Amino acid sequence: RAVEREFKWAVNSEPDFERFLSALKSVLGVLPAQKTVQISDSYLDNSGGTLAAEKVALRIRQVDGSFEATLKTRTRLEGSLARRKELTLPLPSAHSTDQALELLKEKQEWEGVKLTDLRVKFEIKNNRTLYEFCYGSAECEAALDRYTIYAAEKELPCREIELELKRGEEKDFMPIVSFLTQQSGLSPAQKSKVATAENMLKK
């Protein structure tokens, strides 16, 4: 069990990414090496919509042909920092989303969440560029996301920047969040990927 701690900025155009990277370079002196990954997320719920009602997110993620399931509890906002518990279950024998879904159903229950009546609600395809760096004791990962949400037979291209505290102290993490916000001129994201997709399902 881990606690995910992250900050997100809204991105309206490609130049917003450049402003963020310029701010990151100014604080670090040099940009870290970048890594690009293709991520496919299938978000799940039961037929009664219980998980969404309880603000629990359950997804199957595929990265480079490997599958895993992730369970996230309700997000708590502490100031501008999002915090939630996150559990990950590797699914090494899965070779497709359908197989991963069947493996979850066979597990029947996970952390009190029943898994026998699951279905895919929506999907998110994400082209993510990663930058890993340290700031004081804070080990950070910046993710520049260019993604598309597929929900209710609709497609919505979006952009977002996430900065996650992977390890270390929040006292070293929050100052760089404040600096990057001020230097880039970007605004905190008001809505998560999941919340945007849920709204698409309601329309």
**Helix-strand topology string:** EHEHEEEEHEEEEEHH
Report Rg: 17 Å
Structural class: alpha+beta
The strand order across the widest sheet is: 1-6-4-3-2-9-10-11
Beta content comes to over 45%
Secondary structure tally: strands = 11
What is the approximate shape?
globular
Overall mean pLDDT: 94
Number of helices, where a helix is a run of at least 4 consecutive DSSP H or I residues: 5
Question: Distance N terminus to C terminus?
Answer: 35 Å
Instruction: List segments where confidence is low: pLDDT < 50 over at least 5 consecutive residues.
Output: none
Portion in helices: 25-40%
Major sheet: 8 strands, antiparallel, barrel
Q: Any overview of this molecule?
A:
The chain is of the alpha+beta class and 203 residues long. Helices cover 27% and strands 49% of the residues. The chain has five helices and eleven strands, in the order E-H-E-H-E-E-E-E-H-E-E-E-E-E-H-H. The chain has an eight-stranded antiparallel beta barrel with strand order 1-6-4-3-2-9-10-11, surrounded by four helices. A two-stranded antiparallel sheet has the order 7-8. The longest helix is centred in the first third of the chain and has 15 residues, at 14-28.
